[in-house]
Design a protein that fits this description.
With 134 residues, this protein is α+β, with helices and mostly antiparallel strands. The chain has two helices and five strands, in the order E-E-H-H-E-E-E. Strand 4 and strand 5 form a beta hairpin. The radius of gyration is 17 Å and the shape is globular.
């Protein structure tokens, strides 16, 4: 019976080497490091989604622009527009992940948008979930 061999990123082999910085920045020493590529990618996606285009110096195109949808009139088309926009933005910037399932819930009374999606890290085949409230 065939099975898929799990590939390991070479950066993950050294457990004493930091790969990135984890989000949120609320640790006593401000920054919490990530030790695996999957955790680094997850933090990078969260950072990308919470950053607006033009917020980052010398990289004005970095950011998702999700906050532009917060004050839009909520219709069926708004849900489809946000879903399409998110999938396009994430797949353009992060070509090493695959979005499996994307859920968007609107809280009209608080003018909030709850986004959760499952993604697969293509290198190792591991899956993870990201949940955000905007």
């Amino acid at each position: 019976m065939p099975y898929r061999l799990q590939q390991i990123d070479p950066n993950d082999l050294n457990n004493r080497r930091y790969i990135g910085v984890a989000v949120p920045f609320n640790q006593p020493n401000v920054f919490r490091q990530t030790f695996t590529s999957k955790d680094a990618v997850k933090s990078n996606i969260i950072n990308f989604l919470l950053t607006e285009q033009g917020d980052r110096y010398f990289n004005n195109l970095f950011g998702s622009g999700l906050r532009n949808f917060l004050f839009e009139q909520l219709t069926v088309n708004t849900d489809v527009d946000i879903r399409t926009y998110l999938i396009n933005q994430i797949s353009t910037v992060f070509n090493n992940i695959t979005i499996e399932e994307l859920n968007i819930d609107f809280d009209e009374d608080r003018n909030q948008m709850n986004i959760s999606f499952d993604f697969t890290y293509d290198t190792s085949g591991e899956t993870d979930t990201i949940e955000l409230t905007l």
